Here is the input.
Amino acid sequence: MTASIDTPDITSAVTRRGAELYETQREDIIRRTDRFFVVLMPLQWLAGIAAALWISPRTWAGAQSSIHVHVWAAVFLGGAISSLPLAMIWMQPGKASTRHVIGVAQMLTSALLIHLTGGRIETHFHVFGSLAILACYRDWRVLLSATVVVAVDHLVRGIYWPQSVFGVLTASPWRWLEHAGWVVFEDIFLITSIRQSLAEMRLIAERQANLEDVNHSLEQRARELESEIHERKQAELQLEQNQKFAEASRAAGRAEVATGVLHNVGNVLNSVNVSATLVQEQMAASKLLLLRQAADLLRQHLDDAPAFITNDPKGRVLPGVLVKLTAAAANEQSRWHEEMKNLRKNIEHMREIVAMQQAYARVGGVTELLAPAELVHDALQINAAGLERHGVEIRRFFEDVPRVKVDRHKVMQILINLISNAKYALDASTTVSKELSIHIAPNGGGSVKIIVEDNGVGIPSENLNKIFGHGFTTKKEGHGFGLHSGALAAQEMGGQLTAVSEGPGRGARFILELPAVKFEPAPQLQLA
Amino acid sequence: MKPILIKQRRVSPVITLLWLGVTVGGTIAMMCYSLKPGLTGTPPSEWPAASKVVPSADGPTLLMFVHPKCPCSDASVGELALLMAHCKGHVKVHVFFVKPPGQTTNWVLTSMWRKASQIPGVAVARDDDGREARLFGAATSGGVALFDVHGQLRFHGGITAGRGHSGDNSGRDAIQALILDGTSAVTQTPVFGCDLFECRANGQKGPP
Here is the structure.
């Protein structure tokens, strides 16, 4: 596996994702805190009213009383303080201005509650509690807004109404700093806590981004593995299919060989039949019958043979007849001998054909060192009858080449198929001179090429890339796996099978490249 | 996926400033109310002979007059408790709960009565019809008057910094100084509390 996950692009993407998660988390926290104040603010308002009603419900003058100002303040001032923050949370949640207004409102609420509770020291804790709640925003600026409200309140009141805040008229003008100082004291801890919390949030966001990235990589790897498994299964299926095709092709090849053999044997049998008939006819019309009659006539006159030959008219012609019959018998013997010779030759030919068929009918898989010319010769022999029948002229261009290291049966399968295809291409062509050229030549790089070339119908350029595909055929009876399995077989042997054609009507050339041993000229085949 | 657009309305800054003005103004108004003193009483410079209470012969005597229902005076009683924490044994204290005419005895028995009764060294008494309050010129609940051992008025006023506002205040400091040290620069402070009498309701500026 490469170190691609550490590349700068991916790192920056992870960083961006981390920042995105961090911002999302912050927004969530801010909105959650906003929602918290939606509950808190009305509660504070109600608490203020309750405190006013409990502590100072009425103001008195002797026996007369009226509603205390604190009650009105709790209702209206408290309501006013809570109104804008609630409206802002509803209308613009999450905005910085919203939480700053909330911070200011909290401090004003603190002031109201302190007043309503008679300045109880305990109520002052509302200020510190509010600051802690405001810290939930994890925005130190909100604490600053709230602190400024407290500081300004104490500063102004310390200057103009010191008694209201410090209880004495003679307090130091800087005493407000003492009060604000405690708020700042809390702020320091809260701000430190906020900074730490934000740092942790950022760290968590970065970790989550990293985890997402790792997860993504794992998912991608899993998909790749699935894809690889699928491809391998497909390849296995393809291989299995190819093996089936190859087997089918070999079977077809063997059938082709058998067909060729039967065809050739049939042809030879024709010759044998002709020879036998000829001999029979010759024997039927043989002059030897006349010789027999002459011999019978002579036997009848054995006692007076000299007188018969001398005096009898038949006897006088008998010597001449015998001389002619002897000459005719010698002539007949010569013809019979010739016919018997042909007969024997044809029988031998049949034996060779059968022997060759038996040789190629064996199970393949054995790599041998073979002479290319021998393989070509055998392939031509198997197709000879068909080629002859279609009037195909065979031209051989064999150069000195080393022996090839191949599976005989696979090469034969390929060559027989190529020659057969050429035969069909020539048959389908209107060309008068049907030529099939076989070239054997060194190919360079330690291989040998066998070229099967015809001047038949040719191959359209759009079909050149398809002809080796499985199922592609232009023959009516074709199956489309001859060239496909041939190309695979060539690859299996370390060679290759390619095709060249200049187009329809321009013939085709199939080049079979086969691995060869170091140059060692193959023995020249004595071709008949 | 088409993003969902939420049209977010914005609160006008003018509204925000208006809100700030209203709330800050309201807070200031409430503060002004808290700091608005009650009627200034006119206590006699010497202990009135008509009083049913006699001044202490061993030290100063502190008198406090309270409206039983005044919410602001609760802070005054609380400040008195603080004062007594420092001055117990050095001063005699009487707290009078003014009972307007026509009210029952129970009318004065409030939580503030009980709170004052629990302060050590403090004598709590009902002041029917505000007789003692009138004798000592008290007009506002929570007001106190300190007389020395000779019956001379040394201080009068309130012992809270605002209406019902607990905490440090000049009055308490002054009384503590007079009791313990015998001297104080402050001899009078404003009183924050309800009117003891219905004088203002009747258009009068002081207690009848």
